């Protein structure tokens, strides 16, 4: 791997998933740090597809939300391309959950930011399609940003072509994704339900050791545990919200997050008021 890409100096590796590598880079002129994601060499089917992606990518570069990673530009050519994005110094959600037990107000704070990030994408007519704990980043002040949200559809196609589907990704698949059916916002809401179940309870709602086993359970197995029975800090109202997100049939899930975010924001405000009165 070369040490300089365009005018960015590679400082080190900050991620090495099987699909692609992520590097910490520094702008040679400004010294500002960024993340640089190297896409697989066969990610695009043709130069024409690469150019089309590049043009569409310009819209995503304009996105502004405190809860999504900022995309800066696409670098390279269709057989060797890189995504330059904001660098978030901190940990991902998996590290946050596994490091220690957190108080419920902190968990609610994190959950609301994840939901706001998803809502922003949906309002912008973008589906995430690859929401999982490793794609949710937190800094030291518990500011949350979603990553890997624009090109997930192409990554899913690339995985299928290579015959590669990771157990980690499948844990968060909606039943529609398992069936390879058309997806909409409710598919992301199912994946969000998996994320929130894990955040509030520290266990996954669907467990298994193989891709086939987990896929089967997403389709056939109803989740019987609820977060509030695993973690007594979690109110029953939160458990009901999460379990509705995890409904197998899309029509039984929430169709949008707007009202839900308002309801949980009110809950957060009541919790903060209660703390202030102690």
Automatic annotation (TrEMBL):
User: Which domain of life does the UniProt lineage start with?
Assistant: Bacteria
- E.C. number, please? 2.7.11.1
- Could you tell me which residue ranges the Protein kinase domain spans? 8-265
Recorded hits in InterPro entries, A to Z, give: Kinase-like_dom_sf (IPR011009), NEK_Ser/Thr_kinase (IPR050660), Prot_kinase_dom (IPR000719)
- Example GO molecular function term? ATP binding
Q: Which residues form the signal peptide?
A: none
Keywords in UniProt for this one?
Answer: ATP-binding, Kinase, Nucleotide-binding, Serine/threonine-protein kinase, Transferase
Q: Which SUPFAM superfamilies match?
A: Protein kinase-like (PK-like)
What would be one Pfam family of this protein? Pkinase
PANTHER family linked to this entry: SERINE/THREONINE-PROTEIN KINASE NEK, SERINE_THREONINE-PROTEIN KINASE NEK2
Name listed for the protein in its UniProt record: non-specific serine/threonine protein kinase
Q: Which organism is it from?
A: Abyssobacteria bacterium (strain SURF_5)
Upper lineage is:
Bacteria, Pseudomonadati, Candidatus Hydrogenedentota, Candidatus Abyssobacteria
